[in-house]
Write a structure and sequence with these properties.
The structure holds 3 protein chains of 3 kinds.
Chain A: E1 10-15, E2 20-25, H1 35-45, H2 52-67, E3 73-79, E4 90-93, H3 125-129, E5 133-134, E6 139-144, E7 152-153, E8 159-160, E9 176-178, E10 183-186, E11 190-195, E12 198-202, E13 204-207, E14 218-220, E15 223-226, E16 235-238, E17 242-244, E18 252-255, E19 259-261, E20 265-266, E21 273-275, E22 279-281, E23 284-285, E24 288-291, E25 295-297, E26 300-302, E27 305-308, E28 312-320, E29 323-326, E30 330-335, E31 343-347, H4 351-384, H5 390-427, E32 431-438, E33 442-446, E34 449-452, E35 457-458, E36 461-465, E37 471-475, E38 481-483, E39 489-492, H6 493-504
Parallel strand pairs in A: 13-15, 14-16, 15-17, 16-18, 17-19, 18-21, 19-22, 20-23, 21-24, 22-25, 23-26, 24-27, 26-28, 27-29, 28-30, 29-31, 30-32, 31-33
Antiparallel strand pairs in A: 1-2, 2-3, 4-6, 5-11, 6-10, 7-8, 9-10, 11-12, 32-35, 32-36, 33-34, 34-39, 36-37, 37-38
Chain B: E1 2-6, H1 10-22, E2 27-31, H2 34-44, E3 48-52, H3 60-70, E4 76-81, H4 88-94, E5 98-102, H5 106-121
Parallel strand pairs in B: 1-2, 1-3, 3-4, 4-5
Chain C: H1 6-32, H2 37-56, H3 60-77, H4 85-107, H5 116-126, H6 134-144, H7 150-157, E1 165-168, H8 173-176, H9 179-201, H10 203-227, H11 230-245, H12 251-276, E2 279-282, H13 286-296, H14 313-326, H15 332-340, E3 365-368, E4 386-389, H16 391-419, H17 426-454, E5 455-457, H18 459-462, H19 465-476, E6 479-485, E7 490-492, H20 493-514, H21 518-523, E8 529-539, E9 542-549, H22 556-565, H23 571-576, H24 579-583, H25 606-616, E10 620-626, E11 630-638, E12 643-651, E13 654-659, E14 663-667, E15 674-677, E16 680-685, E17 688-694, H26 695-698, E18 711-717, E19 720-726, E20 728-736, H27 742-745, E21 750-755, E22 761-765, H28 767-782
Parallel strand pairs in C: 6-8, 13-22, 17-19
Antiparallel strand pairs in C: 1-2, 3-4, 5-7, 8-9, 9-11, 10-11, 12-13, 12-20, 14-18, 15-16, 16-17, 18-19, 21-22
Helix pairs in contact in C: 1-2, 1-4, 1-19, 2-3, 3-4, 3-5, 3-6, 4-5, 9-10, 9-12, 10-11, 11-12, 11-13, 12-13, 12-14, 12-15, 16-17, 19-20, 20-25
The chains are: A alpha/beta, B alpha/beta, C alpha+beta.
Chain lengths: 505, 122, 783
């Protein structure tokens, strides 16, 4: 630090982190012609880069000073280049994934803690994400590449480094595909789970709590596991299996494959439970249930309407009240109760299925009739008329259209009817085994007749049809058979129906 | 694909609609004669027209001639009857791209629609 | 080949030669944008025309190669052939062979046969899409070659056996049931078309006929489209196009079109007859329709094509037939016939056929006449026609115009002084003034027209370079692109002739030595594709052509090393040299830096040729280079035809001319605006401060005669701005630039002199050097 000999006419101020250099010419200085050189010299001493622009500005400043020496003049003589910082790579989520949460979360990683349902006792990502269902190929978001910065330059010509944008590494698994363009897509249908920086699509939806107002109805393309119950009036649907660990109240549940009700179901005669394949339940109380294949119940079926596509093999289960259709074999501990509760068991071909078949047959017949009529009208018109009038041509077109429509309908319907017949026929059998007791009040429908149990029958026994189609009862201990009519009142259903109709009339 | 059906018979329009919906075309507008059609083409901007020849008020041929004054390219399929067969060339000269003679089967109609659209796309 | 009429051969060489040049450029563009159908069509048409003309002249060897190339292109046009590297290579090679054949023709040599291998390749490329394979193509050449009069032979057997083609008609059910209706309708329509075509010739009935034709053809066009008869459609659409544009056409064009249209109608009738018996008949009509389209769209119809000159033979036949048909009973036909013979009889002045050696001053050049009022028969047409005149005649015309400009300026001055005296009556003064201004205008027009005759756009040579660069890139395995700017800058013909070769050398140098291999470029952080930019711009009385590459740049050390080795300098001297002086070594004879001599460049003679050629044009060449960034070569060439607009200014008793093109504005600065900083006079103009130069001081005009400068003329060149102080503004004038002898030009602040309208001499200020000098002073002062 050498002491200043005299005050410099210039005040040089380098500021803004070296991005700007301002020169002030003190008032009252008489600089003559040396001013510019002096000023540039001082700037050079401060390592300011002297460009032609700086030259010009200094000259201009001095010109300004010349014009009015009594004033102080300032001018920014050098300007650096601010660095443009790079941007980090980021993930922009499809707005749908932000779901009902109205927090302004659009980037993962920084605000992931906000990606949480606010209330509910279990604050868990699953609860929230359970409702972001996506289909395979659906866009989940976009992964933005980092943007490189542009270095700046100070007035001294030094480089001011720009921040380098960092790439965001997306943490995921094979359920999510990142395309070259940055698009993020679901590789499979399922539920999107965003957990910290990890984004995945799960094909199994796990609901930790109840299905209730916090979750809403569920319609999921995959498996659903509900760790608690399903509350009144909620619907749960899944294309695969559904497991409910808690109690099912008056709710509707439909499983595309199997349904497991580990806690049992008490539906108070509302709602419907169904599965395309098997259903396993702890108990069924006042339920309307359809199992496409087998049904297994651990404890009891009480006042329920149950239809089973194949077997009901539950040797520890009691059926009390309601109606039960079993197409295949049936193995039950006890049917009915001491209080003689009316309980109906239908064995073999389900009656409703039979009705449907009949209805379909009728419909088919009607369509075939119409088809024939259109066809004959069409043929008549074609054979008897050499030249069609415009009206006839139009009628003809209509007829051809009808013929086309009807024959297509006929095709679909007849294949549906025969498919149904075949499916039922394969498993239909009369085979009821009761382990302990069948009480009075039980009605058993088998084939063309019904049997009213008027005295309790002790088990274990088996009811089936003999080679002539007559219902027989076989004691499983002695292995001796008697006709069912020997132990119960048996009547023909056709007669019964005729009687019913007579009463109705 | 937006399709305008011009026919005085509701039944015919329904038939055409049904054929079209089986082909996957559902954006359909209907007009009951040439005058009605002319009033609808502007707003609807169809991409295909099925036009009946015989209609009250304004027949199909007149409609095509008028329509072609403003629109040269949108494909038109003319629905005709045997009586007009000799005049089909007249319709073609007026700018019809294809035609189908009543009576026709739904298959024939869909075939005509497909071949017309393919040709336009080519 | 002696049986050719030399004039026809010359026409062929000129027309087809130009087409070939264009082809070259278009093909290179096509390689990059192979999906451009317009371009593909253009290329196809060009080749087709060349083939057509050549076959008319019986040049079998030329036809055979053009034919297969055309087939391949046709395949591509139809989308049957993919435009890939192999395709482009083969087509370009074919064009090269055609060029070689053209040279042979020009020398009067016999045409050499094209390589069979290439014909084979092209035929393979054309593949299934083309009807011919090489084996079949071969007989064509022998078929035409021995026939001295192909036209007659062709008429005899109805073409070369290809046309017309007959195919069985195949229609789907919905269409075949209508075909009879269609044929009847078509027959009626064609009769009406023919009737209306004849009416079209008569101006009084033209409008009605055109309307009727338009309606007729529109209907037929739709019918034909429905039945998918492609060629019939082309024919109808051609007639339709004429009917819609006939109102804008002049009699000459209509005359050119009408026989062709009648031929078209005839072909339509033939096709209809074919349809009647279930045959689809096709003719070779592309050219016929294209010609009609050219005329209708106002394009130049290649010079002097008589209706039967270049048209395919069967069309000639058809035309003859049709004309014969209508002649006996219709007066319209004779009106048609003379109109088609518009071929310029001025061609008598054409030079004997010698293909231009570019340095030959007597070489014929093409003159475009925009306006031809002298010709009574055809009114001003959009169709440009060309005649040939000797360059020496133009030269003298040019000198005369220069004189005329000077005289005109004198008359102008006279008119001004007359208008301010009372010596003459008012009427006389006004008349004189009017006459003077008319003279001014007409002189301007003449000057423009004459100047344009010698000027040619640089595109004429620039157009060849994309192909050059493409080939160089393929040969060297580098990736390069050429960016051309300023191809429309017009320069004197002699400049074009002298610049062609130097630029090729420079470009080869850049491609070979400058642009690095893609790997090296990548390693250096550059785009692997090198760019060579060729830019031309007018700068005052000069044209500046820059060739900029973004290659490795020149290596000073290496250059000096070699220069010393070659004895061009000594180590001591070399150290003293500036970079630019070192770079100049590359222009010395026998200098080559490429470690390996390739066949592209590096033999060390090229750059010497460059320098010599440019010096011959009195131009300068400058090399600048930044290691690692690239090299810029700047060629500056004075405009020989130098009539330029200038601002005449007065300083004392002297007058100077300042080129108008460099003047930004003229201001009268206040005292406050002007100040002296460090002994330099500067002026504040809005936000900037610019140096002031006193023209009087600069040229030592005696102080005694001068007043203080009042006007500051703000001039700009190369982004540098300065103010010139002058005392008087005299006015804008067009001055004829006369070059100065070296010793007068002195320090270089003058670029020439001009003779004023009063007969005195004014000096022309060279703004570029003046600004350079001003900033030199600045630097000297600030140092």
């Amino acid at each position: 630090m050498s002491e200043p000999h005299e005050q410099s006419p210039f005040i040089i101020n380098i500021r803004e982190g070296g991005l700007e250099c301002e020169v002030t010419v003190r008032a009252g200085m008489d600089l003559e012609s040396t001013g510019e050189a002096m000023c540039l010299g001082e700037l050079r001493d401060l390592e300011v880069e002297i460009t032609s622009d700086v030259n010009k500005r200094v000259a201009a400043l001095l010109l300004l000073h010349e014009t009015d020496k009594e004033q102080e003049h300032s001018l920014v003589v050098a300007q650096g280049q601010e660095p443009r910082h790079g941007k980090d790579g980021r993930l922009e989520l499809n707005p749908k994934l932000l779901g009902p949460v109205d927090a302004d979360v659009d980037e993962l990683g920084c605000n992931s803690a906000d990606v949480v349902l606010e209330h509910a006792e279990v604050v868990d990502h699953h609860d929230r994400s359970a409702f972001i269902l996506v289909e395979a190929g659906e866009r989940l978001g976009t992964l933005h590449e980092p943007v490189d910065g542009v270095d700046g330059r100070s007035v001294k010509g030094e480089t001011i480094a720009a921040k380098v944008g960092k790439a965001l590494v997306l943490n995921t698994d094979e359920s999510v595909v990142v395309k070259a363009c940055g698009a993020i897509e679901a590789a499979m249908s399922g539920v999107v789970v965003i957990d910290g920086k990890k984004i995945r699509v799960l094909q199994k939806l796990e609901v930790h709590g109840n299905v209730d107002f916090h979750t809403g109805n569920i319609d999921f393309p995959g498996d659903v596991v509900i760790n608690k119950g399903v509350k009144d009036c909620f619907n749960v649907q899944a294309s695969c299996d559904i497991i409910v660990r808690g109690l099912v109240e008056a709710a509707s549940i439909h499983a595309g494959r199997d349904l497991e009700l580990l806690g049992g179901a008490a539906c108070r005669e509302k709602g419907e439970l169904s599965a395309v394949r098997d259903i396993r339940a702890r108990y069924l109380n006042e339920c309307d249930l359809r199992a496409g294949r087998n049904l297994t119940v651990e404890k009891e079926i009480i006042n329920a309407h149950v239809a089973v596509g194949a077997d009901l093999l539950s040797p520890n289960c009691t059926i009390i009240g309601g109606s039960t259709f079993v197409t295949g074999s049936c193995d039950i501990e006890e049917i009915g109760s001491e209080r003689n509760i009316p309980t109906q068991i239908t064995l073999g071909k389900e009656r409703e299925a039979a009705r449907l078949t009949t209805a379909a047959d009728e419909l088919l017949e009607m369509i075939q009739g119409k088809l024939a009529k259109s066809q004959s009208e069409h043929d008549q018109l074609q054979h008897n008329t050499s030249k069609l009038t415009p009206t006839q041509a139009e009628t003809m077109t209509e007829l051809q259209f009808e013929i086309g429509t009807y024959s297509r309908l006929e095709g679909t319907l007849s294949s549906a009817v025969s498919g149904m017949d075949q499916a039922v026929g394969e498993v239909a059998s009369v085979d009821l085994t009761v382990q302990r007791q069948m009480w009075r009040g039980v009605t058993i429908v088998l084939g063309d007749c019904e049997a009213f149990i008027e005295e309790p029958i002790k088990g274990p026994f088996r009811i089936s049809l003999d080679s002539h189609g007559k219902p027989i009862l076989t004691d499983l201990i002695s292995d001796s058979s008697v006709e069912l009519s020997a132990v119960a009142r048996v009547r023909s259903r056709i007669e019964a129906e005729g009687a019913d109709e007579a009463i109705a009339a | 694909m937006k399709i305008l059906l011009v026919d005085d018979s509701k039944t015919m329009r329904n038939i055409q609609k049904s054929v079209l919906s089986q082909l996957g075309y559902t954006e359909i507008e209907e007009a009951c004669d040439g005058v009605d059609a002319l009033s609808k083409v502007g707003a609807f901007e169809p991409e295909l027209l099925l036009v009946d020849w015989n209609m009250p008020n304004m027949d199909g041929l007149t409609f095509v001639k008028k329509y072609r004054q403003s629109d040269k390219s949108t494909p038109i399929i003319m629905v005709t009857t045997e009586t007009e067969r000799a005049r089909v060339v007249e319709a073609i000269k007026a700018g019809v791209n294809n035609y189908v003679v009543k009576p026709f089967t739904p298959d024939l109609l869909s075939q005509r629609i497909n071949e017309t659209l393919e040709k336009v796309a080519a | 080949m002696s049986f050719f009429d030399p004039e026809i051969l010359q026409d062929f060489l000129t027309e087809s030669g130009e087409l070939l040049e264009e082809l070259d450029a278009d093909l290179v563009t096509l390689e990059d944008s192979s999906d451009d159908p317009e371009l593909l069509n253009k290329v196809f048409r060009a080749l087709h025309t060349i083939k057509g003309s050549a076959s008319f002249l019986g040049m079998a060897n030329l036809v055979s190669i053009a034919h297969v190339a055309e087939d391949a292109l046709n395949g591509a046009r139809k989308g049957e052939v993919v435009i890939d590297q192999r395709f482009m290579d083969a087509i370009l090679e074919a064009v090269d062979i055609l060029k070689g054949q053209f040279e042979e023709l020009g020398r009067g040599d016999d045409l050499s046969a094209p390589p069979q291998a290439l014909i084979q390749t092209l035929a393979e490329i054309a593949g299934g899409g083309a009807p011919k394979t090489a084996q079949e193509a071969a007989p064509v050449e022998t078929a035409i070659a021995p026939e001295p009069a192909p036209a007659e032979q062709a008429v005899a057997d109805g073409g070369d056996g290809e046309w017309p083609r007959r195919q069985l008609m195949q229609l789907e059910a919905g269409k075949s049931e209508l075909i009879d209706f269609m044929v009847t309708d078509l027959e009626e329509s064609i009769v009406s078309v023919q009737e209306n075509l004849i009416k079209l010739v008569d101006p009084t009935s033209r409008q009605d006929a055109a309307l009727e034709l338009a309606e007729l053809t529109e209907g037929v066009s739709r019918t034909v489209e429905f039945f998918e008869f492609a060629q019939l459609g082309t024919l109808v659409d051609t007639v339709n196009m004429v009917s819609e544009h006939v109102g804008e056409m002049n009699e000459a064009s209509i005359g050119q079109t009408m026989p062709r249209l009648l031929a078209i109608a005839h072909l339509m009738a033939e096709q209809t007859d074919g349809l009647k018996i279930g045959e689809v008949v096709t003719f070779d009509v592309d050219e016929l329709c294209a010609r009609v389209a050219d005329v209708v769209l106002g394009h130049e119809l290649a010079e002097g094509i008589q209706i039967d000159a270049n048209a395919p033979i069967e069309v000639v036949y058809a035309v003859d037939q049709v004309q014969g048909m209508i002649e006996p009973n219709n007066g319209a036909a004779p009106a048609v016939a003379p109109a088609c013979e518009v071929q310029a009889s001025d061609d008598a002045t054409a030079q004997p056929v010698v293909v231009a050696d570019t340095t030959d001053a007597t070489a014929p050049i093409t003159v475009v006449i925009d306006d031809a009022p002298a010709k009574a028969a055809p009114p001003p047409a959009k169709v440009e026609q060309t005649i040939r005149v000797e360059v020496s005649r133009l030269e003298s015309l040019l000198n005369l115009v220069g004189e005329l400009v000077i005289q005109k300026n004198r008359v102008g001055a006279l008119a001004r002084s007359i208008s301010s005296t009372d010596a003459l009556s008012q009427d006389l003064r006004e008349a004189f003034g009017q006459g003077s201004s008319d003279l001014d205008r007409i002189t301007g027009d003449i000057q423009g027209a004459v100047m344009r005759t010698r000027m040619q756009p640089l595109d004429k040579i620039f157009g060849k370079y994309p192909r050059l660069i493409r080939d160089l890139a393929r040969k060297t395995g580098k990736e390069m692109q050429l960016v051309v700017e300023g191809g429309d800058v017009e320069v004197d013909k002699s400049v074009i002739e002298h610049l062609g070769d130097p630029l090729v050398h420079l470009m080869r140098n850049s491609a070979d030595h400058g642009v690095e291999s893609p790997e090296d470029r990548k390693a250096a952080g550059k785009d692997p594709k090198g760019t060579i930019k060729l830019a031309a711009v007018h700068e005052g009385s000069h044209v500046v052509i820059q060739m900029i590459d973004d290659g490795a740049g020149l290596d000073r050390e290496k250059l000096t090393g070699i220069a010393i080795k070659r004895g061009l300098t000594t180590a001591d001297d070399a150290a003293q040299l500036s970079d630019r002086e070192v770079y100049r070594f590359i222009m010395a004879a026998g200098f080559s830096t490429a470690s390996q001599v390739s066949d592209i460049s590096g033999r060390g003679v090229g750059m010497d040729v460059v320098r010599t050629n440019i010096e011959e044009l009195k131009g300068t060449i400058d090399v600048d280079s930044t290691p690692g960034k690239g090299t810029t070569i700047t060629i500056k060439i004075p405009l020989t035809v130098a009539i330029m607009p200038a601002m005449m200014v007065g300083v004392g008793a002297e007058q100077y001319a300042i080129p108008l093109s460099s003047i930004l504005e003229i201001v009268m600065p206040d005292e406050e605006q002007v100040s002296t900083v460090h002994g330099r006079r500067v002026m504040r103009l809005r936000d900037s401060v610019l140096p002031l130069v006193s023209v009087g001081d600069l040229f030592d005009v005696p102080e005694s005669t001068r007043e203080k400068g009042k006007f500051a003329i703000v001039v700009e060149l190369n982004d540098q701005v300065a103010g010139l102080m002058v005392e008087e503004l005299i006015g804008q004038q067009e001055v004829v630039v006369k070059p100065l002898e070296e010793d007068i030009a002195g320090d270089g602040s003058l670029s020439g002199a001009t003779v004023r309208d009063d007969g005195g001499v004014s000096l022309i200020v060279d703004i570029g050097r003046l600004i350079a000098a001003a900033s030199e002073n600045e630097r000297a002062l600030s140092a």
